[in-house]
Amino acid sequence: MLRTMLRLLIAVVVVWGGAVLCQGQNIESMEWFAPPDLTFFGGRPRANEGMFFVFEGLTWHINGPGKTTIGKEGATRLVYLSETVTAVETNSLTNGFIDGGFEGGYRFDVGNQGRHHGIHFSMFKLQRERDYFIAPGVSVVFSDPPFGESPPRYHLQGPINSALTDIQNLPVRFTEFESQNRLDFWGLELNYVYRMHPNRFGGFFELLAGVRYAEFDDDFFCLGTGGTLDESRWTSIAENHIIGPQIGGRWFRKFGRWTWSAESKFVFGFNQQNLRLEGFLGSNLDPTTLVQYQISNMGPTTFVYREHEDEFSPMVELRVAFSYQITSAISARVGWTGMWIDNIARASRIINYEVPNMGIDVSRNSADYAFVNGVTFGVELNR
To answer: What is the DSSP letter of 360?
Structure first.
């Protein structure tokens, strides 16, 4: 529902904005490809007015989540490998393979700027980031609380002798283990712009105020096959829907064909988080038949969990760009963008590794931050 409303808002803004811009400026009379006018009234550069449009390609990097194990963090288990051999089981893998490489995307800005007052709409989308890992012989430590009457029993137990009478803790080791993380990041904003008079050095400063929405969705998938808990699969999803008022400023100055601009924005972000965990453990277990070295106190289990949390997630953005004027209205543009968002949920960090049904660890719903940065390149019209 929220995404549908946002798409409708984008369409309304673009259509309405385009109509207003076309009425406010004689588009047909614009000489987009005329030679650039480098003369300045009064000896100072003049800021462009009227409709503007900017399109940029993105090459951005997103940091990975905080390091944690695939399995109960810090937990160990004393397990039996045979009737006489024991070992301390520890987790084999971490989420460190989620390294957050550079991904492509796009961003566009459209608006109309008068001498002092203007409106500005911006939207960006980063291509879905995928990180994948596969490994053989992987151990995953689960918390295994006791159940039943005294003496207590544990789910991850099975017979270790051929007579099937000695029931002890068995390791959870998968013959093959696959893990994948997927990340989607996009956002939009609408601002009122007030342009101040040029300063004594020829630069211009603009004040911005508006509203911003950003979506940071993280999916973490695991599949373990073979071994004592064959076959197991779980998917953790952490959706961060961040919306709030935004304030900021932009400064720019022209030097002949060159324009240097820098802008900074701060968002008082209200983060509505949707957390989900679903999957199954040990789909091939058969607790009705005792088999040596196979888990017998637990059968196949399936689970689906949903949680909703609200957090304050402030967001800061810094954009720096250099533009080179090619014609009277068209410029080539290159720059750098950095964003920082606090108190976000990452899917690989909110899993509670406990048998028989796992769960969501809501205490880690705000344990991470996102730092996004990278280069931008594109074209601008009358900016």
So the answer is: B
Question: With contact defined as beta carbons under 8 Å apart, do 107 and 11 qualify?
Answer: no
CA–CA separation, 20 vs 14, rounded Å? Answer: 10
Overall residue count recorded for the chain in this entry? 383
- Enumerate the H helices of the chain as residue ranges: 2-24
- Nearest partner of 240 among 209, 267, 208, 265, judged by Cα: 267
Mean pLDDT of 313-341: 96
| Listed residue (253, 112, 88, 110) closest to 189, CA to CA | 110
The helix (H) or strand (E) run that includes residue 251 is strand 232-255
Contact 106, 53 (CB under 8 A): no
The whole-angstrom separation of Cα 170 and Cα 159 is 9
3-state secondary structure of 185: strand
Q: CA 155 to CA 160: how far, in whole Å?
A: 15
Q: Which two tokens stand for residue 288?
A: 């009705």
Whether the pLDDT of residue 38 is over 60: the answer is no
pTM (2 decimals)?
A: 0.87
